Amino acid sequence: MWQEERYQRIRALLSSLQQVSTDRIVGELGVSRETVRRDLLELEAMGELRRVHGGAVPVHSEPPIAERVHTRVKYKRAIARAAAGLVSSGQTLFLDAGSTTSVLADELAKLSGLTVITNSFDVALKVGTAGNGANQLIMLGGSVGGPVCATAGDITIAEIHRYRADLALLSPVGVDAEFGATNYDLREAEVARAMAANAKQLVLLADFSKIGLCSRVSYCSADRIDHLVTNTSAQKSPAYAALKSAVGKVVAV
């Protein structure tokens, strides 16, 4: 079994069980305890889990965005550049709050003629304060709190429904063929669901670690995803083939 396939299986076990023993992983993967030990060490180093006596648990619901922006940076940067290539001047875009959409904001700030609607303070600062001033930024109102620095809640959802965007560019916690795009936090999922519903096309930005991963709250089905932008490493995931068949188009970089 390939290393990345083992990682995906361990992520899936943690997502569904919230705590998994080393013995359970050994049995599920059919590998040695030493292999599992090394895999858990690597995944812990990447900030994806915390080792405990006899097994592992999630770090918590999801690592804070301040930590996530420093993980798998080169992969997120490649995804952001590819996603920016799908954008045209004159378009209106929804961006939700996430580490990958934050990197995407850096790329969009280099473009012009865009209207960017977001609930993310980080995205707003990057796009709204870009030196060229060539893009319009609309910051959605709402309550602030939760795991990311962003607005959410009923006011945010109501404001989203005022707009129609050409593209919704969203970054989920996980995506697979059966459950589609998922987030851990309910309020974040509600924002993403509203953005997806009010956009002509949905572009999902998901690095290889998110392929085949299912979190707590689903916000759109796989067949609703027009473009899935990911890394070529995602092709190693056992969930990749089914997901590729379910979505409109995969852009792997």
TrEMBL record:
<dbReference type="Pfam" id="PF08220">
    <property type="entry name" value="HTH_DeoR"/>
</dbReference>
<keyword id="KW-0238">DNA-binding</keyword>
<dbReference type="InterPro" id="IPR037171">
    <property type="entry name" value="NagB/RpiA_transferase-like"/>
</dbReference>
<dbReference type="Pfam" id="PF00455">
    <property type="entry name" value="DeoRC"/>
</dbReference>
<dbReference type="GO" id="GO:0003677">
    <property type="term" value="F:DNA binding"/>
</dbReference>
<dbReference type="InterPro" id="IPR050313">
    <property type="entry name" value="Carb_Metab_HTH_regulators"/>
</dbReference>
<feature type="domain" description="HTH deoR-type">
    <location>
        <begin position="3"/>
        <end position="58"/>
    </location>
</feature>
<keyword id="KW-0678">Repressor</keyword>
<keyword id="KW-0805">Transcription regulation</keyword>
<dbReference type="InterPro" id="IPR018356">
    <property type="entry name" value="Tscrpt_reg_HTH_DeoR_CS"/>
</dbReference>
<dbReference type="InterPro" id="IPR014036">
    <property type="entry name" value="DeoR-like_C"/>
</dbReference>
<dbReference type="InterPro" id="IPR001034">
    <property type="entry name" value="DeoR_HTH"/>
</dbReference>
<protein>
    <submittedName>
        <fullName>Glycerol-3-phosphate regulon repressor</fullName>
    </submittedName>
</protein>
<dbReference type="InterPro" id="IPR036388">
    <property type="entry name" value="WH-like_DNA-bd_sf"/>
</dbReference>
<dbReference type="InterPro" id="IPR036390">
    <property type="entry name" value="WH_DNA-bd_sf"/>
</dbReference>
<dbReference type="GO" id="GO:0003700">
    <property type="term" value="F:DNA-binding transcription factor activity"/>
</dbReference>
<keyword id="KW-0804">Transcription</keyword>
